[in-house]
Amino acid sequence: MTTAAIREKLYDYIRVADDDKIKNIYALFEDQMAPAVDWSEDDAFVAELDERVRRYEAGIDRAYTWDEIKASLEKLKKERADEYNKELNEAEAQIDAGDFSAHDAVKKIFADRKKLIGGN
User: Fold this and answer.
1) Are 109 and 88 in contact, with CB atoms under 8 Å apart?
2) Residue 35: inside a domain
3) pTM, to two decimals
4) How far is CA 92 from CA 1, 63, 64, 82, in A?
5) How many domains would you assign to the chain?
6) Does 2 map to a domain?
7) Which of 70, 72, 100, 102 is the Cys-Cys partner for 94 at CB 3.0 to 4.6 Å?
8) Across 14-23, 58-67, 70-79, 98-107, least confident range
């Protein structure tokens, strides 16, 4: 049976179930139900939104489209990858030239990268 069919059967059952059964069903799932939040009743949240709009309208802050954010992240990702690759290429060139002092630099690059991506 599909989820949609199960949902429809449950709706039908709840519509005609007696009060005790409804209360028992509710008690069974009460912990899993998130309370509805009406953000418009949260004064601090509304004040924060109002302040952000004021700053935007005053030209203090700027808004970004989703496409601008994605493009910015892609550019940053490319810049970091380019810098990483440049450091590795320089270290590789040193090693190829017989200068093994680059070995420590390579280890540092990989250690920094591990920290950056959350490795141990």
Assistant:
1) yes
2) no
3) 0.43
4) 60, 43, 40, 15
5) 1
6) no
7) 102
8) 98-107
Give, for 95, the enclosing helix (H) or strand (E).
Answer: helix 66-96
84 domain-assigned = yes
Asked whether residue 20 is assigned to any structural domain, the reply reads: no
The helix (run of H) or strand (run of E) holding residue 23 is helix 19-29
Q: Which helix (H) or strand (E) holds 83?
A: helix 66-96
pLDDT in tens, 16-69: 999 999 999 999 988 888 777 888 889 999 999 999 999 999 999 999 999 999
Residues 84, 113 contacting (CB under 8 angstroms): yes
**Cα dihedral 94→98→100→103 (10° resolution):** 50
Domain limits at 108?
Answer: 78-120
Task: Give residue 66's identity as a one-letter amino acid code.
Answer: W
Contact in structure between 94 and 102 (CB atoms under 8 Å): yes
Structure tokens at 76: 């940053």
The pLDDT score that the predictor gives to residue 117 is 64
First vs last C-alpha separation in the chain = 45
Is the confidence at residue 118, as pLDDT, over 70? Answer: no
